[in-house]
Amino acid sequence: MVENALKDSLLKTISLFSKITLVWLALTFSAYSQETPPPTESETFQSKIDLEKTGRNIINALRYGKFGVADLEWKKIQADIYKEEAEYSYLAGAIHYSRLEWPEAKDALTKALAKEPNQEAASFLLGMIYAQEDNWKEAKDTWLETNQISPYNPFYHYNLGVAYYILGEYGQAITSLSKSLEYKPNYSEAKTILVKTYLELGNYAEAKKEIESILETDPKNVMASNLLGRVVYLTEKDPKKALALLKDERILGWREKKTYARCYFEVRKWRNAESLFRSIAFSPFADDYDQSFYLNLLLNLGLEEKANEFFHFIQKKNKNDSTIAEAYRMLLASREGKTLLYHYFKVRY
After folding, report:
1. Where are the TPR repeats (predicted)?
2. Are residues 158 and 238 located together in one domain of the fold?
């Protein structure tokens, strides 16, 4: 009897425990279901509005270098409901770009474009990253796609033109820069690269025409004045007239440095010429004529020992046939290109 009573009691306890367990599981499942319901159509619509508004705040903050504001705004859109949107991935790419985190930025922008192939801002920024990584071919190809998405943006055509210029594709550079000027007629930066391109092609008349156009609207444009001096020397062989147009040596490109160093040499300002030409003489941009010119400069300054050192330097270095020298040339050209690009965002140096 006692044994049967114990069995009945045990069975009742197990039955009660099972019921409690089932009730607990039912309540847990119900609570879980209530905690993570799928977003309603209204909530989804509101999230898109919030994402667009916050995204606008982030972009404006990054444009003006207000990185703290951008980071605070970014924290507002970390809920799951935002993360599937192409705009979220684009904003993630912009945040990473501002932090110089190129791989993370590329991943985020690639995701944005996979979700929304016509996301022109993501495409443009992806091209900027390739340029920052000195991969100008990828930058060019990406900006070609950007311009197909948005064919009327002068800044997109301008950066594409810069990429063509750096890659030495001068005919295509003229086409892209001309397009940029078609949509922004007084875009002096585009005219400046157009001048540099015409000079590379030996079209001095067109180069001078563009320079005069810049100076007509902006008489104090220092870069345009520097370029005009180069044109004057190349066409008129007048070093004094060219030097009168030199406004700031610090912003001279390597081509302009070559020109003005020769101007200084011809007016017998050899020390000025040597100072300006030194970095060119030791660079891969120097050809045989440049090396002879620098040796002559050193000898005219009475620096025979330095001339001997430089002579031994150029004897040891067969740089014109060197793949390393070619890579170095490209890196120097790339550095110049980065300063010429239109940058939509500031970065946290």
Report:
1. 154-187, 188-221
2. yes
